[in-house]
User: Which sequence fits this backbone?
C-alpha cells in the first residue's frame, strides 16, 4: 500500500509554533533531523491526528485528512501508523492479539486475521511467544511486535519516531533489518525522525533539518553527508564543528587561529563556524608557537586509529605510526600542546549554527578512560538484554 503525502502544517506550542511544509512521494521516505525540542515529534503527532492543526492542510493521495477549522479525520480512520521509541503494546492482550488488533479493527474476518497474525509471528521470530503478554518479552522483542502490529493493519503511511533509540546493541540490528525488509517489500510511504545519519542514508529520499519549529536545511542524504550547511547536520554527519570569530582571514576559536575558506560573505569580526572532517586535520608537535597550537583535551586509540581532541572541538584522526611521529616516538597525551592544521575547512556565518547547540564529540565519540600515561581508551559496555 503506497500513498502520496502532502503536508502544510502549523501547530501552536508554548515555546514556538511548529510550521512545516513538505511532500512525500508514494513509497518514498522523508527524514526529519534536528536537535531535541526542534518540533520533529510534533510533526509526527500532527500527521497521525493526535495533535490538532492550528492551520494548514494534510492530504494523503489527494484525500483531505485535516484542514484546520473544517475537516478532521480521527486518528483511527487515517490509516497512518506511528511507531516510536516505546513499543506501546496493549498490556492486557497477548502478542497474537496485539498483532490482530489492526486487521480486526479494519473489519477483516477472523480467518484472514489469523493468517496475517501467523505470518507476522513467523517473520519476527516469535511464533513460540504468541500467547505471551508484553511484559514477558524483552525490549527488542516488544519492538518487533510493535512493527508487526503496525504493518498488519496495512497503513498507508508509517511514522517512525526514533524507533531504535531505546534498544540495546544486540536488538537494534535485528529490529532495523525487519523494518527495512518490510518498508522495501511493502513500499509503504514513511516519515522518519532520527538522530542517526545512517538511518536517513538507508531509507530517506529527502532530509529536512528542523530548528525551533521550522525547516532550516533540506537535501538528499548525500547532500547533507558530503556538504552540510548547518552545525547540527555537520556534527550528525561526522564533521567537526568549531566555533569562533572570523578575524584577519582566520577562524579565532579563543584558543587558536585556524585557516579556512569563508562562505556566505563573512566580514572581519563576524561570529563564525568552521566545518571540517577529522581526517583532514594534520597534527604536529609544537616547536614554535605561531598561534595555531592547541592543548589536547583527550586522546583515544581504537582499531589502529588515534583520535585527538582539543577544547575548541577540533579533532584529528591519524594512524598510530603517524601519531608516534607527531609525538617524537610516543603517542600524544592529554594536556600536551600540539599544532593542529585543518586542510579545506569551510567557514560559515554563525547564523548557520544559531539555536543548534551541538557538542561536536557527542554524536560520535565513545566513552573513554585514561590510563597511567594520560592516553584515553574506549570503554567497553556490557550488552543489555
Assistant:
Amino acid at each position: 500500500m503506497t500513498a502520496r503525502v502532502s503536508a502544510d502544517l502549523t501547530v501552536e506550542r508554548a515555546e514556538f509554533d511548529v510550521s512545516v511544509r513538505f511532500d512525500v512521494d508514494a513509497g518514498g521516505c522523508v527524514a526529519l533531523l534536528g536537535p531535541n525540542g526542534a518540533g520533529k515529534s510534533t510533526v509526527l503527532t500532527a500527521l497521525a491526528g493526535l495533535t490538532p492543526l492550528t492551520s494548514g492542510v494534510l492530504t494523503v493521495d489527494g484525500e483531505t485528512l485535516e484542514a484546520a477549522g473544517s475537516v478532521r479525520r480521527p486518528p483511527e480512520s487515517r490509516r497512518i501508523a506511528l511507531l516510536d521509541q516505546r513499543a506501546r503494546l496493549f498490556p492486557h492482550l497477548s502478542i497474537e492479539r496485539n498483532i490482530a488488533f489492526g486487521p480486526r479493527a479494519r473489519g477483516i474476518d477472523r480467518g484472514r486475521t489469523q493468517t496475517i497474525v501467523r505470518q507476522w509471528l513467523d517473520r519476527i521470530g516469535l511464533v513460540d511467544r504468541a500467547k505471551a503478554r508484553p511484559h514477558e518479552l524483552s525490549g527488542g522483542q516488544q519492538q518487533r511486535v510493535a512493527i508487526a502490529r503496525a504493518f498488519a493493519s496495512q497503513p498507508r503511511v508509517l511514522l517512525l519516531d526514533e524507533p531504535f533509540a531505546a534498544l540495546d546493541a544486540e536488538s537494534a540490528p535485528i529490529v532495523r533489518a525487519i523494518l527495512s525488509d518490510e518498508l522495501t517489500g511493502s513500499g509503504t510511504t514513511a516519515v522518519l525522525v532520527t538522530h542517526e545519519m545512517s538511518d536517513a542514508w538507508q531509507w530517506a529520499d529527502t532530509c529536512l533539518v528542523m530548528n525551533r519549529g521550522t525547516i532550516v536545511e533540506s537535501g538528499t542524504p548525500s547532500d547533507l553527508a558530503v556538504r552540510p550547511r548547518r552545525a547540527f547536520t555537520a556534527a550528525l554527519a561526522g564533521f567537526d564543528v568549531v566555533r569562533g570569530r572570523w578575524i584577519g582571514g582566520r577562524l579565532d576559536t579563543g584558543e587558536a587561529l585556524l585557516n579556512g575558506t569563508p562562505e556566505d560573505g563573512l566580514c572581519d569580526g563576524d561570529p563564525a563556524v568552521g566545518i571540517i572532517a577529522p581526517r583532514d586535520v594534520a597534527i604536529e608537535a609544537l616547536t614554535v608557537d605561531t598561534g595555531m597550537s592547541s592543548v589536547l583535551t583527550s586522546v583515544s586509540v581504537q582499531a589502529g586509529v588515534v583520535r585527538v581532541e582539543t577544547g575548541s572541538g577540533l579533532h584529528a584522526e591519524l594512524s598510530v605510526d603517524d601519531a608516534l611521529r607527531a609525538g617524537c616516538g610516543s603517542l600524544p597525551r592529554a594536556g600536551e600542546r600540539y599544532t593542529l592544521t585543518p586542510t579545506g575547512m569551510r567557514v560559515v556565518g554563525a547564523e548557520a549554527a544559531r539555536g543548534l547547540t551541538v557538542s561536536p564529540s557527542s554524536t560520535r565519540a565513545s566513552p573513554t578512560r585514561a590510563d597511567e600515561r594520560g592516553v584515553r581508551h574506549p570503554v567497553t559496555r556490557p550488552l543489555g538484554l
Notes: The chain is about 25% helix and 30% strand. The two ends are 34 Å apart (CA to CA). The first strand starts at residue 5 and ends at 11. Residues 96 and 199 are 29 Å apart (CA to CA).
